[in-house]
Design goal:
By secondary structure, the chain is an alpha+beta fold. Helix content is 43%, strand content 24%. The chain has a five-stranded antiparallel beta sheet with strand order 1-2-3-5-4. A hairpin with a 5-residue loop joins strand 2 and strand 3.
Length: 171
């Protein structure tokens, strides 16, 4: 990220191990409340909340016992656009790593995020868990772009993009 200015909102949350499921909704709601005054648009706020929720769900469901992080920034780009970046870091369970890597590679390579999401919905009917539906949902429904990388055993997933508003003027 090459941003010259300081973030308008920055939030970093670290966990010693995967957070309990009960923390996902309150954390996402807190993030939403921090940003709501800047968005002036419920749709933009809902897209951000969905993104944070799906990324946090992933670290709850698929983390080994090592620590996890959620980092969020809302900032202005050099052109003045409002942009958001949500990043998670976790160490996935060893048995999930290859599958996670393959799913993320397919997701980020998909030319049409909505078509990819539809195919995952169809595939998920035959799978009891671990469908990849949450990340595909971010890609298809929020306009945020996903990227990922492994550093050693740690998986970093980043959702980022311009916060487009349906109404009003950017703050």
């Amino acid at each position: 990220m090459s941003v010259a200015s300081k973030p308008l909102v920055s939030l970093e949350v670290s966990f010693g191990a995967a957070p309990p499921q009960g923390m996902v909704t309150p954390l996402c709601q807190s993030l939403l409340e921090l940003c709501r005054p800047l968005f002036q648009d419920e749709d933009a706020a809902a897209r951000l909340r969905l993104t944070a929720h799906e990324l946090l769900e992933n670290i709850v469901k698929y983390s080994a016992e090592a620590g996890c992080d959620l980092n969020f920034e809302l900032f202005r780009t050099p052109t003045g656009a409002l942009s958001a970046r949500v990043q998670t870091r976790n160490v996935p369970r060893a048995e999930n790593r290859a599958d996670a890597e393959a799913r993320l590679a397919a997701l980020t390579a998909a030319a049409d995020p909505l078509e990819h999401y539809d195919s995952i919905i169809a595939d998920s009917a035959q799978k009891p868990a671990g469908s990849g539906l949450g990340l595909a949902r971010i890609h298809a429904e929020t306009e945020y772009r996903l990227s990922h990388r492994f550093e050693g055993n740690a998986l970093f997933i980043v959702a980022s993009g311009e916060v487009w508003l349906k109404k009003g003027v950017l703050p």
